[in-house]
Specification:
Blueprint (H helix, E strand, L loop, with lengths): L9 E5 L6 H9 L17 E5 L6 E5 L12 H14 L2 E7 L6 H13 L2 E7 L4 H6 L11 E3 L8 H14 L14 E7 L5 H9 L17 E7 L2 E7 L14 H15 L2 E6 L8 H12 L4 E5 L11 H12 L8 E3 L8 H15 L5 H14 L12 E8 L4 E6 L7 H12 L10 E6 L2 H10 L1
Parallel strand pairs: 1-3, 1-4, 4-5, 5-6, 7-9, 7-10, 10-11, 11-12, 14-15
Antiparallel strand pairs: 2-3, 8-9, 13-14
Helix pairs in contact: 11-12
Length: 459
């Protein structure tokens, strides 16, 4: 047998609808990544995550029901996504509902998996009661050879399942002997209003229909991680659910949880892409709010105008659109603007190149001596307003953090620097270090001339 331990094994969770696949996904990865609700059809796309918490590495895929959603508008696409997961996987975890017992659709799933000739572990879920465990013997009628009983909702049997999973992967020669967590992956979150084309854009980057797309608003309900390597750089693309207005979100709905996961994905990403549409009303109020969330969190980002192929344009249209966007989103004029068509793929690859550039430049650290020279010239060229007859002096400046670049200024009257002059300071720094896609955070601290003399004597 050839050694396959140079790659991370891929484990797919499949089954008919509403048997607890997403709950098992959450239990195994130790995080509430997949949305769970007690009705069929909540999971639509393949959701991927990298699991490292159990002492061995594997990638885990959650899928929608392979059968059992015949009436849903996305039924065919959901089944197609599950089929693709089966084809990709090294090992399959097939989940049954122990409370409901064997169902005709379970038989269809077993037949499909048998045809795939993939290794399968059979799991009977919802077995918190001894009577359910006893009744699980009926699943032998499906023609399976061995099954494991557990309760994902009550976290019963998880440890045993993990041990079985590890032994299975080890016997298949799939476990890496020296697994190392990749630390050079750039996490890119794709954000925007519902139905702006986020999933279509990712599919075009991948060169396959990994994500379900539709004209229906809200097709993507969860944040979905997808690995991609382009020009030697590894990326983790995070397709997020479209952020909706709070007034349109009812408590305890799938959309509410989708928004929460989108915000969490934003907090964990390295670069954010705000996808908007062209048009007279764009960017609209919701686009502005999403941009504001990114800006407030200090995350490097760019604005990508999708569906540019639908716009009647001349040589001035792009510049005029850029001006309009910057006028509407004045607080983030630093964000680069790109124009693409996710449908045709035009300029889509350039987005990842720009994301890498933005990420790397956000990690730039300005030498303290150079930073002070830049700011001393700026203060000399345009001094701040005088306060009570005293000039406002800059004693010292230093960069204390990256991503976003964060700078502390020590001054005699820091509270008297107004917003306009702070913007002048940022623009002066950008002339030397543009930091495209990143805000520059400025903090001002009080220091007296005596403290400055002591600092200078010691430094």
């Amino acid at each position: 047998m050839s050694n396959k331990s140079n790659r991370t094994p891929l484990v797919a969770i499949v089954g008919r609808t509403n048997v607890g696949k997403s709950t098992l996904f959450n239990v195994l990865c130790g995080k509430r990544l997949a949305i769970v609700e007690d009705r069929p059809g909540v999971t639509r796309d393949r959701a991927y995550t990298h699991v490292t918490k159990h002492g061995f590495d594997f990638r885990l895929i959650d899928t929608g029901g392979i059968v059992g959603e015949d009436d849903g508008p996305f039924a065919d696409s959901v089944r197609e996504q599950a089929e693709l997961a089966i084809q990709e996987a090294d090992l399959i975890l097939c989940v049954f509902d122990g409370v409901a017992g064997p169902h005709p659709h379970d038989g269809e799933v077993v037949d499909r998996l048998r045809k795939s000739q993939k290794d399968v572990m059979w799991i009977v879920n919802k077995c918190e009661k001894p009577s359910t465990v006893n009744d699980a013997v009926e699943f032998y009628n499906l023609g399976i050879d061995e099954y494991f009983c557990m309760s994902t909702a009550h976290n019963q049997g998880t440890g045993e399942l993990v041990a079985l999973l590890r032994n299975k992967l080890d016997s298949m020669d799939l476990l890496s002997k020296n697994a190392e967590q990749e630390d050079d992956i750039i996490r890119v979150a794709i954000l925007g209003r519902p139905n702006v084309g986020k999933s279509t854009f990712i599919n075009k980057l991948l060169g396959e229909d990994r994500l379900i797309t539709s004209d229906h608003s809200g097709t993507t309900r969860d944040s979905i991680d997808i690995e991609l390597t382009r020009d030697g750089q590894q990326y983790m693309l995070v397709d997020t659910a479209g952020l909706r207005k709070k007034s349109k979100i009812e408590e305890a709905t799938v959309e509410r949880y989708s928004n929460l996961r989108t915000l969490r994905s934003l907090a964990q990403c390295d670069v954010a892409i705000l996808l908007i549409e062209p048009g007279e009303e764009s960017p609209n109020e919701q686009d502005s709010k999403i941009a504001g969330l990114i800006h407030e969190r200090g995350i490097p980002f760019m604005i990508v105008v999708n569906k540019w192929d639908l716009v009647e344009k001349d040589h001035k249209t792009a510049k005029e659109t850029e001006r309009k966007i910057h006028d509407s989103l004045r607080f983030c004029r630093y964000a680069p603007i790109l124009f693409i068509s996710a449908l045709t793929g035009k300029r889509c690859p350039s987005v990842l190149s720009k994301a890498k550039e933005i990420y790397e430049l956000a990690l730039t650290r300005i030498q303290t001596s150079e930073l002070n020279q830049i700011l001393e010239r700026a203060f000399h060229r345009k001094p701040p307003p005088v306060y009570r007859g005293q000039p406002i002096k800059l004693f010292f400046a230093t960069q204390i953090a990256q991503k976003p670049p964060t700078i502390v200024l020590f001054m005699n009257h820091p509270g008297k620097i107004n917003f306009s002059y702070e913007r002048y300071i940022k623009n002066s720094i950008r002339k030397h270090y543009p930091f495209p896609g990143s805000d520059i955070k400025i903090f001002m601290r009080k220091r007296t001339e005596k403290q400055d003399r002591v600092q200078s004597a010691n430094g």
